[in-house]
Sequence to fold (290 residues):
Amino acid sequence: MKTFIKVIKKLYWLGLLGFVGSFLDIPSLELFYLFFLLALVDFVLSIIIVLRMEDTNETVSDIKFLFQNLGMLIGIPIIYLRNRFHLPDAKSYEPKILYSLPFQGSWNVANGGVDRETSHSWNICNQRYAYDFYIEINGKTFCDSGKSVTDYYCYGKPILAPADGIVVEIKNLFNDTPISDEPEALCSASDIRGNYIIIKHSEHEYSTIAHIKKDSFYVKVGDHVQRGQQIACCGNSGNTSEPHIHFQIQQGKSFLLSASLPICFADIINHTTCKTSPYIARGHIVENKK
Ligand SMILES: [Zn+2]
Fold:
């Protein structure tokens, strides 16, 4: 493709002949303006090359990160259009699958819920109903100084398949993002998800689990997974302030172009509320029934 771009770069200078055509009033020469369109082709192909490059240097990584953020902005109106301006919500959406929590034992819901107040990020509709989970003991999520990812109780813990399905995408590229001195999310990867897995559970229900520890995957693309099977380990890759599991269900495989769906859980214990609801929310402590 690089040779093709080199040829294009030479050809679009022919567009200058269009100015000669305009100056001499020769309409057939004015057609040479069309060669300027090749500049656009050159631009698009160059972007594709950068996006396909491995993150070998910081510039490529920064450009990919920028494009993902732009993609997220462009994705929002596309998601609204695809859903005819009626995004799925907890009242109207009929789930195809009831999910298990993607971990063993009791974890805290650090972020997420099915209403605007508790939502992971209400206005970012591809992550509206996502959840972040971590382990808290005596009000703290870490022991020792908390400056190393390994200080965190959930770091390295097994991640489980939330339901039966087929693995359709895995990224296993990024080292953990170091813990920041400030309580803010950092991202040392070109993808906010860091290492992630996407599992197809039904025609229009896919799960994404993100921030996975590099090289901790137990499955590969194409594998059939069963609910509760270990698929990877919790890490701190991508855009994150501390190790946690980001879990969401979405309408399609594309993270940027799929609406996030409210997640109905089944066979879980909610230690925080005695209300029997399939939904969980920020502040709850939850676990799967054994
Ligand atoms: Zn998250």
User: Anything to note?
Assistant: The chain has a mean pLDDT of 91.
